[in-house]
Amino acid sequence: MCIPGVPIPGPVMFFIFGFPEFDSNIKKYEGVKLHCDRCNNDSMEAIRHRRFFSMFWIPFLPLHFSKRIKCTICGSFRDVSKSEIDQLFKR
């Protein structure tokens, strides 16, 4: 729409960005489950969690890496260190 006296803007740029998260099982503890205090099931797994910055749906800049135990039923999670995971899964 052209309005007299109003300048027409030049090229417009837009960016689509986000912060996707990726989880994967830790091979050493795959198939071993812990007890979840929130939902009272034996469904907590050790996972490797990663968060990236993405531009146009392509993740290219890693922002955060951590190890977690996460419930596959209720979704509750807790960040833990490697030594903590070893200690929890020894039981």
TrEMBL record:
Protein name, entry field: Zinc-ribbon 15 domain-containing protein
